[in-house]
Specification:
Bound molecules: nicotinamide-adenine-dinucleotide
Helix content: 40-55%
CATH superfamily of the largest domain: NAD(P)-binding Rossmann-like Domain
Number of helices: 18
Strand order of the largest sheet: 5-4-3-6-7-8-9-10
Radius of gyration: 24 Å
CATH architecture of the largest domain: 3-Layer(aba) Sandwich
Structural class: alpha/beta
C-alpha cells in the first residue's frame, strides 16, 4: 500500500498535485536552484545552510551566486510563501523529504571528501520526523548512501529516537549558467531507492516536472546504479572534451580545421554534436573532481581507469596550451609583457572560478613576470577573492586590452564575440590574439593585422 505523505493538494496551472514539505541541506548552486524549482512547483521548501552569512544575505534578498533567472524565481517563490532560508536544522522537523546537497570536494588523494555529507546526515538525524525520506543529491561515490543510512541509524540510536526513515539517491545533472532551465526541463531524473514506497514518493514529487517537460524521462534504479550514473555521465562528457581537444591539437599539426572535423563527426547520429567543441580545457566544480573521484573508486576496487587517467592528462596540458602558444610567439621573452585576459569564469554565464583555466594561465604568466590585466562580465568579485592585487582588474573589454602586448580569450562570453577585431588591434600595443574558444573568424582576424592563434585551426 502506498502512503501519501503530503499535507494537501494544490492546483497550479489547472493541474492538481500533492504539496510536500521539503528541506534542502546545503544552499549552494545545487541546493538553491533545486530548492527554488521545487518551490516553483508549489511545494513548501526550506533551504538550510551552516553558512549563517549566506542565509542572512538570502533573507535580505542577496543571492550568493549568479545564475540567469534565479533571482526572479526566488522572489516569486518567497512571495508565495513557498521558500524560506534558515541556518537552523530544527526547521526541517516537518519535512516529508530532506535533500542533502552539500559539497563533496576533492580530498588530497583525489577521492571525494564526504565530511560535509556525513556531518549533514548526523545533524539531520536529530530533527527528521518519522517516515521521512532522506535523499542524497550531492555527487557521491558508490556506497555513500549506505554510509549516510548507517550514520543516521547510529545517530538515531544514540539519541534514543525510535523512528523510521528511508534513503534514496537522486543525483543532479544541472549545468552552471543554465541551472534553472536544466533543473525545470531536465532530460532525465534518476531515482535510486531500496523500496517501492520511496520510489513512488519521489516520483510524486517530480510529477509536475513532466507537465511542462514532455521529453522528461524518469529512471528508477537501485541506489548504487544511481550513484554510478552521475559519475559516469560526468566522466563521459569530460572524455569527449579531452578527446576532441586531442584531435584539435593533431588538426593543427596536419593542417586540418577542427571546426569542420567536429561538424562532420557530429553529423553521425551515433555520435551527435554535443561536447565536440575544442577549447582550452575543462574546469568547474564537477568534471575535474568527479573524474578524479572515479579514478580513485576504480583504484579502490582494483580497476585501473586507463581512459580516465588519459582524459585528465590531456586536460592538464590543454589548460596550459595557450601559455605555450604565447611563449612561442614571444620566443620565451614574456618578462614585463602586458597580457590581457578576457574571461575568468570556467565557462560563460556563471561566476564560478573553481578549477578555471584562467587561474592556471594567470599563475604561469605571473611566474614569467608579466603584467596581467583581467576582465570578466560577472566573475570579477570572485577573482578578487582568489587573486587579490596580483592582477589589474579592468572595468570593460576595452580597458583590459588597452596597451596589451597580447590578448588571451579564455571564456566565450557573448560580450567578447561582438567586439570588432579591428578595435582589438587598435587598442592593443602588440598584435597577438590567442583565442582559446575559437570565437573569432581566423581570416578576418588576420585581415585586421592580428597575429591570431586558436585551437585546432
Ligand atoms: P556549493 O559549494 O556551491 O554549496 C554547498 C553548500 O553546502 C555551501 O553553501 C555550504 O555552506 C553548505 N554546507 C556544507 N556543509 C553543510 C552542512 N553540514 N549543513 C548545511 N549546509 C552545509 O556546492 P554545489 O556546487 O551546490 O554542489 C553540491 C553537490 O552537488 C556536490 O556534490 C557537487 O558535486 C554536486 N553537483 C554540482 C553541480 C554544479 O554545477 N555545481 C552540478 C551537479 C552536481
Amino acid at each position: 500500500m502506498i502512503t501519501i505523505i503530503s499535507h494537501s493538494m494544490v492546483l497550479i496551472n489547472n493541474i492538481n498535485y500533492i504539496q510536500m514539505d521539503i528541506s534542502i541541506i546545503g544552499t549552494g548552486y545545487v541546493g538553491l536552484v533545486n530548492g527554488t524549482c521545487i518551490a516553483y512547483h508549489g511545494n513548501k521548501v526550506t533551504c538550510i545552510d551552516i553558512d549563517k552569512k549566506k542565509i542572512e544575505n538570502l533573507n535580505c534578498g542577496i543571492i550568493p551566486i549568479y545564475e540567469p533567472n534565479l533571482d526572479v524565481m526566488i522572489s516569486n517563490a518567497i512571495s508565495k510563501n513557498n521558500l524560506s532560508f534558515s541556518s537552523n536544522y530544527e526547521d526541517i522537523e516537518d519535512s516529508d523529504i530532506v535533500f542533502i546537497a552539500v559539497g563533496t570536494p576533492q580530498d588530497e588523494d583525489g577521492s571525494a571528501d564526504l565530511k560535509y555529507v556525513l556531518a549533514a546526515a548526523k545533524e539531520l538525524a536529530k530533527h527528521i520526523k518519522d517516515n521521512c525520506i532522506v535523499v542524497v543529491k550531492s555527487t557521491v561515490p558508490v556506497g555513500t548512501c549506505h554510509l549516510v543510512k548507517q550514520c543516521i541509524t547510529n545517530e538515531l540510536a544514540s539519541l534514543g529516537r525510535h523512528i523510521q526513515f528511508h534513503i534514496a539517491s537522486n543525483p543532479e545533472f544541472l549545468k552552471e549558467g543554465s541551472a534553472i532551465d536544466d533543473c525545470l526541463y531536465a532530460d532525465r531524473i534518476v531515482i535510486g531507492t531500496e523500496d517501492v514506497h520511496t520510489q513512488l514518493e519521489l516520483r510524486e514529487l517530480y510529477r509536475p516536472w513532466s507537465f511542462k517537460n514532455t521529453k522528461l524521462q524518469i529512471l528508477s534504479t537501485d541506489i548504487k546504479s544511481s550513484e554510478m550514473i552521475k559519475y559516469t555521465s560526468n566522466a563521459m562528457l569530460a572524455t569527449r572534451i579531452s578527446f576532441i581537444n586531442e584531435i584539435a591539437n593533431l588538426c593543427e599539426k596536419v593542417g586540418a580545421n577542427i571546426e569542420d572535423v567536429s561538424k562532420g563527426v557530429g553529423m553521425d547520429s551515433r555520435i551527435g554534436d554535443k561536447f565536440l567543441k575544442p577549447g582550452c580545457g575543462y574546469g568547474g566544480s564537477c568534471f575535474p573532481k568527479d573524474v578524479k573521484a572515479l579514478i580513485k573508486i576504480g583504484e579502490e576496487h582494483g580497476e585501473q581507469m586507463y581512459i580516465l587517467n588519459s582524459v585528465e592528462e590531456v586536460n592538464y596540458f590543454q589548460k596550459r596550451l595557450m601559455f605555450r602558444k604565447l611563449w612561442n610567439h614571444f620566443n620565451g621573452n614574456l618578462n614585463k609583457k602586458t597580457i590581457a585576459i578576457l574571461g575568468l569564469a570556467f565557462k560563460p554565464n556563471t561566476d564560478d572560478m573553481r578549477e578555471a583555466t584562467s587561474l592556471v594561465l594567470i599563475d604561469m604568466l605571473l611566474q614569467e613576470g608579466c603584467n596581467v590585466k583581467v576582465y570578466d562580465p560577472i566573475a570579477m568579485k570572485r577573482c578578487k577573492e582568489i587573486l587579490g592585487d596580483k592582477v589589474q582588474y579592468c572595468e570593460g573589454v576595452y580597458q583590459c586590452i588597452l596597451g596589451a602586448d597580447a590578448t588571451l580569450l579564455v571564456t566565450e562570453w557573448d560580450e567578447f564575440k561582438n567586439i570588432p577585431l579591428s578595435d582589438i588591434k587598435r587598442y592593443m600595443n602588440g598584435n597577438v590574439l590567442i583565442d582559446g574558444r575559437n570565437v573569432y573568424d581566423k581570416d578576418k582576424a588576420i585581415g585586421c593585422g592580428l597575429v591570431y592563434d586558436s585551437i585546432g585551426r
